[in-house]
Amino acid sequence: MKIFQQSLRLRQRSRGFHLITSEIIQAMPQLSEIETGICQVFIQHTSASLTINENADPTVRKDFEMYFSKVVPENDPKYLHDEEGPDDMPSHLKAAMLGCSVMIPISNGRLAFGLWQGIYLCEHRNYGGERSVMITAWGE
Hints:
Layout: E1 2-10, E2 16-19, H1 21-27, E3 36-43, E4 48-54, H2 58-71, H3 88-98, E5 101-107, E6 110-111, E7 117-123, E8 131-139
Antiparallel strand pairs: 1-8, 2-7, 3-5, 3-8, 4-7, 5-6
Protein name: YjbQ family protein
Organism: Arcticibacter svalbardensis MN12-7
Pfam families: YjbQ
């Protein structure tokens, strides 16, 4: 059993859904040493999230942002947690809905995505800053 772990600092991005698959792969060259295994990517924040979805058509990512902004609006007067601005509590709710990690099978030293799949950084804050992810890969 081989286990590899790497921390990755992602540059600041605007609010929205951003493909980060290539950054994850570049940060973990040891994937090539695993024939069969699992890769987990975990975001170390509560106001951003990760998901796997469409990697070809950028309108999908725009539609994701539109949908989540409608479902979890800003400036709801019932929010108690509002000291960090109107996008703070909605960002926590969106992150809870989407989750903080994704798992991808490793096959023949590569992430075994489907044809049109990629990893999204889901940035829910207007100014979220840099984001940290922990990548862990294990297998044989």
